[in-house]
Amino acid sequence: MNNKKISLFAKLALFAATLIWGSSFIIVKDVTDSLPTNTLLTIRFLSASLILAVIFRGSLKKLDRGYLVRGGILGVLLFFAYMFQTFGITDTTPGKNAFLTAVYCVMVPFMAWGLTKKRPDRYNIAAALLCIVGIGLVSLTNDFTIRMGDLLTLIGGVFYALHIIAVSKFSDGRDPLLLTIIQFASSGVCAAAAMLVLGDFGRLGGIDITAALVLGVAYLAVGCTAVALTFQNFGQKYTDPSTASIILSLESVFGVAFSVALGREGMTPRIFVGFALIFVAVIVSETKLAFLRKKKLR
Question: What confidence score (pLDDT) does residue 137 get?
């Protein structure tokens, strides 16, 4: 297969991953109506870890204390990110949850400043300002209060940003697939521990296990976690970072598109403008508009 075909398949893989993740917001919203948040996360992460461990079992030969420590820390951060995001979606719409989660892309340069000593540039600052205005338009009510679901989603975004920073620090010289397997297992264990603390185990007997619930959980565990992650790993390997960032940022757009198309939420002009500003902020922060400069050079 020539390089052009590989590049095309890589972009299609990223697009597929983004489409799958965009559709997941509605599924999570539906599943959490029946299943406690940490029960869902326990099943989702442990299942995904097991699936990846079976498929990529050759990577397990590299397992050592370093992978366990690094993967464990990443798993804890990922658990808190997903937990706050999933709790958040129970008190907001799938579209808002998608876009408010995406602000982690804008947070990363500022949160990493103390670690990397690299000051945010003008694109990061512009993106942050756009993002703040966008969040206000999407989240603030007429009396300038914010719903608890939106606030929890934003807290989840903070943990996603911390997770990305930790990945950049811990992944050097490590097998990304093995690191992912360990962190998913760690996230699943954290979710199971939270179930125990919150008494979710005692409520499992009252859950009405329907075909829709089983299919929803399976879709999240297999499609949105194991499959989409594999697509992302392949896609980013053969796609330049700017293009990959643009494609992956469409996750929030698809999240809203699915929600609106299926009648789960309406779209007021104010919220639409807020979504647009957040999306532009993510594009500016992730790509620094490099794709525009490339066009000018041509």
Answer: 85
